[in-house]
Amino acid sequence: MAHTPPPPGPGRIASLHLAARTGEPTFRVDQAQAVTGRGLVGDRNYWAGEAPRPRRRGTGRASGVCDVTLIESEVLEALAHEHGITLTPAECRRNLVCRDIRLNPLVDQEFRISGVILRGLKLSEPCARLEQLARPGLIRGLLHRGGLRAEVIRGGTIRTGDRILPLSHDAPPLLPPAPAGLP
């Protein structure tokens, strides 16, 4: 039987993961503090600089900066079923593993997790580095369903079990989208 993704929201946080430094294994936490424009406290992607976080770093596929990464737990299940690749939530290297919500439709949309507001920036496509750290064949298995990169619009605490609610498409965004091409 084919995997049928659930409709957009509401979903929930199945697990949270942080990595202290780039390339280090992620570890599971029960909650994480999201800080506007900075990310998750204690994570490798947290921006601790004095100035505002740059919108881009370097060049190439991984050049976009994001505060939080998300993936659907159903995708991890489908990866095992369809490609024989078992990947634990920690091994997928995404911060938030979600259940019962489709993430792709949240690109350019704001959504709420408890009191935290995030905005989907773009799909988090799998990369060669993830494949090196996890399993061969991962890029093919996760292409166009590797998760979502998001920015923190309003900070707060995110906990395992929190609901994920897309905000109404009719509601004005809390902040305007960043202009394309900003350094």
Order of helices and strands: EEEEEHEEEHHEEE
Largest sheet: 7 strands, mixed, barrel
Radius of gyration: 16 Å
Strand segment tally = 11
Global morphology: globular
- What integer is the average pLDDT? 80
User: Treating each run of at least 4 consecutive H or I residues as one helix, how many helices?
Assistant: 3
Regions with little confidence, pLDDT below 50 for 5+ residues: 3-7, 57-63, 179-183
| Strand line-up in the sheet with most strands | 1-6-5-9-8-7-11
| Approximate strand percentage | 25-35%
Quote the distance from N terminus to C terminus: 46 Å
Indicate the percent of residues in helices: 10-25%
Structural class: alpha+beta
Overview of this protein structure:
The chain has 183 residues and is of the alpha+beta class. The protein has three helices and eleven strands; from the N terminus they run βββββαβββααβββ. Strands 1-6-5-9-8-7-11 form a seven-stranded mixed β-barrel. The longest helix has 11 residues. The termini are far apart.
What structural keywords apply?
11 strands; disordered N terminus; disordered C terminus; 3 helices; single chain
How are the secondary structure elements laid out?
Layout: E1 11-18, E2 27-29, E3 31-35, E4 39-40, E5 68-72, H1 73-83, E6 96-99, E7 110-113, E8 116-123, H2 128-133, H3 138-142, E9 148-154, E10 156-159, E11 163-166
Structure, briefly:
The protein is 12% helix and 30% strand. The chain has 183 residues and is of the alpha+beta class.
